[in-house]
Model the fold of this input.
Amino acid sequence: MRITRTGGGRGRRAAALTTTVLTASALLLTGCSSDGDSDSSDANGKITLKVADYGQFGYKEAGLFAQYEKLHPNITVKEETTANEADYYPKLLQQLNAGNGLADVTGIEVGRIKEVVDTQAGKFTDLSKSINVADWVSWKEKQATAKDGSVIGAGTDIGPMSLCYRRDLFQQAGLPSDREAVAKAVAGGWEDYLKLGEQYKKKAPSGTYFMDSASAMYNAVVSSSSKQYYDADGKAVYKDSESVKQGWNLAAEAAAKKLSQGVPQFQDPWQAALRKGTIASMACPAWMAAQITTYSGDNFKGKWDIARAPGSAAANWGGSFLAVPKSGKHVKEATDLVKWLTAPEQQAAVFKAVGVFPSNKGAYELASVKNATLPYFNNAPVGQIYAEEAKSIPEAVLGPKDAAIKDTISTQINNMEQRGTSPEKAWGAATESIDKAIG
Done:
């Protein structure tokens, strides 16, 4: 599931990257297509393209819509953002089923893409006819490919995994604090991460916790496997999935040993915990840095750092797509906009603005990505960390109800942490709810 990256959506402060400055000409010209002749303009030849998305895609923050309008004087881009993806998706389904109300360009979260591909593909433009989909990491293309070979979504970002941690709290607890030393301490996997947590607990600064939530760690564990909730035939196999079992058992252990503060991510208590500085570490997909920067604030600048994720298996958590409904009045112009927004230089600009990592492989060789650091996180070399992780992320088998399954399991993990629910009762409640939801 792609979590809302900055809670309240647009207008939040994002993690600022220190990079080689992008040239204006590169931003404006690369990936740009000509206006061409439009058969769908108003009497004055002016076109308004509506872009519906959720959370923070970063286009406004990177100034890309304004740049596109300068390149195309006859086009105005209007972004309609829903703060929470959980509110956005039901509305999108209603619009698709009703056949009206859709924007010219619409965002789709990775946890939903399989369901859309399987049930709504015919309502979207085949972007492979106009965009070189091979430019993305290969598994990103496959996620948006329908049975007939059409590609209904252009890859925006991905969520390669890392570990975010508080250097000062690790030092106070007698743990290694250098990012290379931290990576070495958890090199054996998330089991090593829990062992580190036990060490932290022994000398933990008063009022602090080793991790934010065990459910976040669970998601990171499952995200490192190609087999998660469904098999290749579309059968739900979450009950027998080794990655789900491993993630669940580790989460149950973390809850039992009280290594977690037990605050569900992105909710008010989690935001408050970051402001108070009570969280020492968390599973950290690329887009999480902006969340931490926003809610931890200036008091903790330079005290956070980023290390490679535990273990040797790369993981991806999150990512989205841009799709163009066939019913739109400006399909060609909308497709041109999507092509431009997902080109390397534009994805690099979004990475610089809000920290979401490109899915376009061409961006990885750009200095603005390759040399990127995060001053807030002790100048962590995030460009190198995330690009290296992205190269070996396994191709995960997606299912139509991935997001619902993940959310339900996460809720029950939170119950183990907050209410002391036994792992057996929590798992029984999760499976009962999931089986009802997926039929």
Notes: The chain is about 40% helix and 10% strand. The first strand starts at residue 47 and ends at 54. The CA atoms of residues 90 and 96 lie 10 Å apart. The beta strands are 47-54, 75-82, 105-109, 154-166, 281-285, 304-308, 316-323, 357-358.
